[in-house]
Specification:
Elements (H helix, E strand, L loop, with lengths): L5 H29 L3 H5 L2 E9 L4 E4 L1 H12 L4 E14 L4 E14 L4 E16 L2 E18 L3
Parallel strand pairs: 1-6
Antiparallel strand pairs: 1-2, 3-4, 4-5, 5-6
Length: 153
């Protein structure tokens, strides 16, 4: 087996560091979304980010409009959310670009009426590295299955 050069080793390590940074970015996105940390969530997106969800005919452009949409829809304290991404498939496509697919689980519960929904699907993301930091450039949410839930009592 041929030995790797220092440059090849550094390149491979750099790719792994970028993939790990993107995983941390997505984890921060989920945490900030569910904890309603809007300023911190804003920092997860590029200024020209795009959010698309075909099932609900949503297509938002710009980090600030995306955050405002999320704040209006999920911001009230009686709305409890859980968002999770699993089984990441991340590909570094250039020095400052990457793409990823995540299995999605989401749950929304309205404590005022004891109703909510759970859903499964996919996030398909594009990422951009700006000033050495990875950010979400676009995210497309595809829901595969959603069920309504009602809590008794």
């Amino acid at each position: 087996m041929a030995e790797l050069t220092d440059l090849e080793t550094k390149t491979r390590i750099g790719l792994l560091e970028d993939i790990e940074a993107i995983r941390k970015l997505k984890a921060r996105y989920f945490r900030c979304l569910d904890k309603k940390m809007w300023d911190e969530l804003t920092a997860c997106f590029t200024e020209d980010a795009v959010l698309t969800e075909h099932e609900r005919n949503i297509n938002l452009q710009g980090g600030k409009p995306i955050i405002e949409f999320l704040r209006q829809g999920l911001g009230p304290d009686h709305l409890i959310t859980v968002h999770q991404g699993h089984n990441s498939e991340i590909e570094i496509t250039g020095d400052t670009t990457a793409k990823g697919i995540w299995a999605l689980y989401s749950s929304l519960f309205n404590s005022q009426v004891n109703k909510g929904s759970r859903g499964w699907g996919l996030y398909e993301d594009e990422y951009a590295k700006e000033k050495g930091e990875w950010k979400i450039k676009s995210t497309t949410i595809s829901r595969l299955f959603t069920e309504k839930i009602r809590r008794e009592g």
